[in-house]
Amino acid sequence: MSSTPTILEDVTGSEASLRRFLHGLPGVDQVGAEARAAGLATRSIKTTAKAYALDLAIRMVDLTTLEGQDTPGKVRALSAKAMRPDPSDPTCPATAAVCVYPDMVGIAKEALGTSGVHVAAVATAFPSGRAALDIKLADTRDAVEAGADEIDMVIDRGAFLAGRYQHVYDEIVAVREACRRPDGEDAHLKVIFETGELQTYDNVRRASWLAMMAGAHFIKTSTGKVQPAATLPVTLVMLQAVRDYRALTGQMVGVKPAGGIRTAKDAIKYLVMVNEVAGEEWLDPAWFRFGASTLLNDLLMQRTKMTTGRYSGPDYFTLD
Amino acid sequence: MPSPFEYAPAPESRAIVDLKPSYGLFIDGQFVEGHGTPFKTISPATEEVLSEIAEADQADIDAAVKAARRAYDRVWSRMPGRERAKYLYRIARIIQERSRELAVLESLDNGKPIKESRDVDVPTVAAHFFYYAGWADKLEYAGHGADPQPLGVAAQVIPWNFPLLMLAWKIAPALACGNTVVLKPAETTPLTALLFVEICQQADLPPGVVNIVTGAGATGQALVGHPGVDKVAFTGSTEVGKAIARSVAGTSKRVTLELGGKAANIVFDDAPIDQAVEGIVDGIFFNQGHVCCAGSRLLVQESVVEDVLERLKARMSTLRMGDPLDKNTDIGAINSGEQLKRIRELSEVGDAEGAERWEVACDLPTKGFWFPPTLFTGVSQAHRIAREEIFGPVLSVLTFRTPAEALEKANNTPYGLSAGVWTDKGSLILKMASSLRAGVVWANTFNKFDPTSPFGGYKESGYGREGGRHGLEAYLRTPHESAR
């Protein structure tokens, strides 16, 4: 069963029709897209607008640890940070989620309890995606069974670059099915393109449509393991895709830039872009996320500065 | 419903600008009183009076031309190119150092958003001086003869749409080639020219090399008609340009004219649509459409017109109009009440001719001169809004079926300053660029300016080129002329 909207069913029927559709999407002019992103980045966000943006950005953070050295202790600490990013200020909102490897889902779930902070798990042989489909599906089911609310999968970039779009599509559809929980609800599926490997904006636009048609709840730039990770122009192209997809199908899809977003200033540039390109409906943790780890503390530091009028040092903010 | 993410006001401070209650004329290295009737310059965004400006009469013009001649004969034309270059480099660097001050003053006096004066106008001004400074000691290699000589005194009259940038386009090449100048800024935007002379003083530019006379049309007429000038350079309307051409006919004065335009911005069905929409917006709404090379005629292939218009309207709705000094303002004020009247009149003609008007719904400030970003659909070549230059934020949308028809329609205008082509097909870009009768053809971009690139018109958009190596020719005696 696929969740492709009726209007696009003809498109996803065969390799040939899928290719025709994706290659028929309007091209992206690199210079123009980068100029537009740079133009939006000059917006000056001050006072009340800045306060709003900082809190929203905190609420949109998927606080992430994806290391070989992750331990239960590290994940518990990260979960505590996600629930109470600024222990000295009860008005500070919690982050959207913590993002961990599948074997840490149970620990995170337990630590987060009923706080409302989601557990997101990377799956499908993250970050390379180089494994057989049943292994990817088992990886996904494992995370879902352990209680993951959200699954961040990677696409098969090799297949995509070789032009085997149907293969990529079918995999996303299969993973989406593996996201089904016994209660019938779906864990939310984020589809990672690894835009640093797809390289061109035309590829990013095609991957966006491919993933949306296959039933992605979110489209996500990067794993954080490949450089460049998230950039403003890549995110611009993805925001245009979700905007156009809604115009065509009526369905909203979320966007998650991940990797390399470290400062509050950068985060605000992304929010300006969400506001002016996709539209204000996307200014919500349900529709836009930041995949980040160090970003949170800079947001907190700026937030404290807004309320106290003074900058404080990094020692006043918890490491995790 | 207001957006939850309402950008708070982010005004650039005016404090950096030291506005004087009145300004005189700048002649022979100092400010002197004018003998005409002083006039006021206002902020078009608020109608606040900014300063009182002297008007130059015939005797003042005479004094300015004499000062320029003296500086030419005694100092500037004899100075080695590498020495002239030093002054130009110095001016360029001071412009960079005082860029914020220049940008704020330009936005105050002109009404354009600070974003544009800060990110486009002033950096391009500095770049222009740097570029021509580099030519000053290399003129013999510019392809205009083995030993090119300056012309003498240049009379330069510039418009109000890019006051400081047009000043740079005129003064930088003139000085690099060894000419001296008398320049008249537009009467609604004299302030940055008067700040520029402070920069000349700061750079120790010899007196008389740059002279500024202020006033309106009559002052400009007196300047270009003065028998002591060797060269006339004008940027402005085609009507005034023609009058200037007539007045200098039969004299030995050299003339370059950069006049009006009604540029076609051509969008083919395979264009990168999102970027094309940005280009359409840049093409017509940049600087409130007060751009001679504005893409005021949008030619869209009929097969994609609905998609393009839908995206264009959505994009136009995100344009932020208001206080020119707010850093988030995209669209500023119309430069004058007179210009606003003309924009309104021509838009009403559009209504009367049966075109369909669509404008961004926004509250206009009660004071000052404002016109919302507007487009007209259902426009044909026969409509006046498709033929006459509106010089405001008003876009006429026409359609075409084939490249040949696009070309025919694009060239079917008395103007020929610029054009834009949007397509993913390289061969089509080359074909269009070689067949469009326009001085500049932009491919998958619009309104991009660079000092290295020549700029100028075909047909009634004028003659002569500004910018680049070609721009030097307007200020040098060519071997052909020297032989005469």
Note down, in words, how this protein is organized:
The complex is a heterodimer of chains A (320) and B (484). Chain A contains 13 helices and eight strands. By secondary structure, chain A is an alpha/beta fold. The model of chain A has no long low-confidence stretch (mean pLDDT 95). Chain B folds into two domains: 22-259 and 460-483, Aldehyde Dehydrogenase, Chain A, domain 1; 264-451, Aldehyde Dehydrogenase, Chain A, domain 2 (3-Layer(aba) Sandwich). The A-B interface holds A 26-29, 31-33, 35-36, 42-50, 52-53, 56, 240, 271-272, 275-276, 280, 283 and B 3-10, 115, 119, 270-275, 278-279, 318, 327-328, 424, 444-445.
Q: What multimeric state do the chains show?
A: heterodimer
The largest sheet of chain B, given as strand count, sense and whether it forms a barrel, is:
7 strands, mixed
CATH names the topology of the largest domain in chain B as Aldehyde Dehydrogenase, Chain A, domain 1
Q: Which strand order do you get reading across the main beta sheet of chain B?
A: 14-15-16-13-12-17-18
**How large is the count of helical segments of chain B?**
14
Relative strand content of chain B: 15-25%
**What's the CATH superfamily of chain A, by name?**
Aldolase class I
Compute the number of strand runs of chain A.
8
Mean pLDDT of chain B: 96
Please state the CA-atom Rg of chain B, rounded to the nearest Å: 22 Å
Helix content of chain A: 40-55%
Number of strands of chain B: 20
Spatial separation of the terminal alpha carbons of chain A:
41 Å
Topology order of chain A in helix (H) and strand (E) letters: HHHEHEHEHEHHEHHEHEHEH
User: Any low-confidence stretches of chain A, pLDDT <50, length ≥5?
Assistant: none
**CATH homology group of the largest domain in chain B:** Aldehyde Dehydrogenase, Chain A, domain 1
Count of domain modules of chain B: 2
Structural class of chain A: alpha/beta
User: Which chains have the largest interface?
Assistant: A-B, 28 and 24 residues
**What's the CATH topology label of chain A?**
TIM Barrel
